[in-house]
Specification:
The protein is α/β, with parallel strands linked by helices. Helices cover 26% and strands 26% of the residues. The protein has helices at residues 16-22, 27-40, 75-85, 123-132, 150-157, 182-192, 208-213, 216-226, and strands at residues 45-51, 65-72, 91-95, 108-113, 134-145, 171-174, 177-179, 194-202, 238-245, 269-271, 274-276, 283-287, 290-292. A hairpin with a 6-residue loop joins strand 11 (274-276) and strand 12 (283-287). It binds zinc ion.
């Protein structure tokens, strides 16, 4: 663990959902993720933590779970998710820093983290936090951006790119946007206490020319087939992994849920429109149905 706070990639005020997904010609990528999730998600469960939920694009896909906690650092992304999904007791909206998750240990029986690890300057610290909040045997679905992808390999071989796609170090291609090597991610998962069960190679056909010239249904069929090669070879721009929590963790006590992200007290109390920590006296507001545990954000 590092003492200093890692920087956070904040989508506050961003129109990411509209510009990137709704109008960005990314129907293929969205379908590719739907197929991967369907393959990797457990059939059902109690409580799923969606890390980096954004505007809730993937949330309706977690149908087997009784409750889903949508977590994002950006309040405005969560407001968009709330508009999309509604005030349903099925969903809980939490704005918080992934490096300081405001949940008690052993709370969730599943977690997903899609298009989120690639914003982490300290990915292993983030994974340790996720592991802490999971019950023994819980399933963790992690997606990451793969530096060892076909385009990067080709560019490297024809000397259009200086960095090697074959080495383990991360590549920051834009500020707080990282591509990782599959070996590095597998190493972090293992060291953190996860057992890797399955890997899917996702979005091989994320190429403008292919997306424009081939019908989406054909692309989707090819995608469904080629994803399965991911257990043996990961040369796709995106990789989905399914892991399980192993080791001596314990399940949270009934009724325990939030923990103070500053002093780590478990005894938080809800009072009117806020959550109060009796240990350090900090108050965490609930803003229009969104629990706000961001430290120093207001
Ligand atoms: Zn506290």
């Amino acid at each position: 663990m590092t003492d200093s706070q890692p920087p956070i990639c904040d989508y506050e005020g961003s129109n990411y959902q509209t510009s990137f997904w709704d109008q960005g010609g990314r129907a293929y990528e969205d379908r590719a993720e739907a197929i991967a999730l369907q393959r990797l998600l457990p059939k059902g469960g109690e409580l799923l933590l969606e890390l980096g939920a954004g505007a809730g694009r993937n949330t309706p896909r977690y149908t087997g779970f009784k409750q889903v906690v949508l977590l994002d650092y950006s309040l405005t992304q969560l407001q968009q998710a709330l508009l999309r999904l509604g005030r349903d007791q099925h969903y809980l909206y939490v704005a918080a820093d992934i490096y300081k998750l405001p949940f008690v240990d052993g709370l969730f029986d599943a977690a997903t983290m899609i298009r989120t690890l690639h914003h982490m300057a300290e990915p292993q610290v983030a994974l340790e936090q996720v592991h802490r909040t999971l019950q023994p045997g819980a399933v963790f679905i992690l997606e990451y951006a793969n530096k060892q992808n076909l385009k990067a390999i080709l560019r490297y071989l024809i000397k259009q790119q200086a960095w090697s796609p074959f080495t383990r170090e991360s590549i920051e291609f834009e500020k707080l946007n990282f591509d990782f090597h599959p070996k590095a991610v597998r190493g972090w998962l293992k060291e953190t206490g996860f057992t890797l069960q399955q890997q899917l190679a996702v979005s091989y056909f994320r190429i403008g020319l292919l997306k424009r010239s081939l019908p989406i249904n054909l692309l989707t069929r090819l995608e469904a087939w080629i994803q399965l090669t991911g257990n043996w070879m990961q040369l796709s721009p995106s990789v989905f992994t399914r892991s399980q929590v192993i080791g001596n963790t314990s399940k949270a006590q009934a009724g325990a849920f939030f923990k103070c992200p500053v002093c780590e007290a478990y005894s938080l109390k809800q009072q009117g429109g806020k959550i109060i920590c009796p240990e350090c006296s900090r108050e965490w507001p609930i803003r229009d149905g969104i629990f706000d545990f961001r430290i120093g954000a207001y």
